[in-house]
Amino acid sequence: MKTLKFTLSFLLLSAVWTFAQTIPMNMVEKIRDEQVPVSVLKTFENEFASAKADIKGGVWYAHFEHTTAIPGDQGKPGTSRAIPLHYSYRGKKEGKNVEIKFTPEGKWVSSKGLPDMVLN
Length: 120
Hints:
Helices cover 30% and strands 38% of the residues. By secondary structure, the chain is an alpha+beta fold.
């Protein structure tokens, strides 16, 4: 009876683990300037060039959804994908946190910590 309970518990745990690996996870990763899409960098330079000099310690972040598919038949490994959701530039201006968000296509989404500004 103990063996049957152990086996069923193991099978249930395995099924839950397999399912959990297929659930998409939203992740944030610090990236270098070279990893930011050119369209995002162009928009940032065009719209926020004057503010960039005032932002101290500015760093780029990639926000993405990471998915992993269940391994296929015949021992084929599962696939892993990272789908970009948006990019953000974070730093400080006059001691206040600043964050500027862009879509992966390079469109400005929002900015926090900057005074209301008219975009070019």
